[in-house]
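Checklist before submission:
- one chain only
- standard amino acids only
- sequence pasted in full

Submission:
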Amino acid sequence: MSRETDRFPLVALLGAAVLGLALAFLLHLPQALWGLISPRTAVHQLDGVATPGEYRFAWNDEASKLTFRWSIVGDRLIAAVSTPDTGWVAVAFGGAGPLMYGADIAIGWVDAHGAHVEDHYANTPTSHVADTTIGGHNDILASAGAQTAEGTTIEFERPLAAHDSTDQAIVAGQTKVMIASADADDPMAYHISGHKAVALLDLFAGPPARAAAGAGLPDHLSDVEIMLACWMAVFLIIGIHGVASGWAERPGEDAAQPSGFAVALLVLLVLLEVAALGTFAVGVGRASPVWLLGSSLAVGLLALAGIIVVYTRLFVRWQTIRTERDDGIPW
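Returned file contents:
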């Protein structure tokens, strides 16, 4: 086997690593992982201004001129709602109805004292109250707001999980989302102006926000993500297979007496396999983000491949396999 052939699996692994890093940054995985391990503090700079490219997703209702922007970061929803009105603006999630009954609402306004954002619950089809007044908790972790000649914007951060009966959990799949605004700061004032809109949105999948001017990535990122993932998988398979095959078939110690390092490596791979599959199973039960499910399953599959290679290296006599292969027995 030539040196060029020996190097090819290593080049493939290097290519897979580069594509994996590109995919990770494209999917904002470093920020999401940091959000999982960081303390429960704000994970996004909120200033009341929704700048282009700040949020991953956006929904704009042309009729009402309301815009809802959001990102999923770790176990948080970070969002902004903008309106041409100069009073309160709100976004509501879920609710069995009729109308907005049962919805989990973030509502805010800007006055002379600054920005105010509160966690409300729709206790009737046409009214709402602060969670704290009916035994719930304020789950707005951070907030900001600003008012200009163009209207009002509030930004807020909240957990994805529901911590009490007045909360609506943010999960994958379609969620009923309502946005509304008014010309009055009083959060109990009705939106007589008619600035309101309702949609079913998958808050984990889009629709994607328009890329900022001069952005280096295209608007439709799903095709790019799929392409990177496929090529990364191809390079990983080629690289791992090449490196593992070369290592396994290299003359070594008697397979019946494996080294302590080899045994420890096998045990480590088994523990990694159990942890990865356990994370995947728990994630399915808790409807965790797709990136977490996919990553844990991929780690589990790679650990399984490592277990097979190491086990074969330790307990199968490759000299016997090579002899039988040379005798014409197919493998």
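Reviewer check: The chain has two domains: 3-28+219-326, 39-202.
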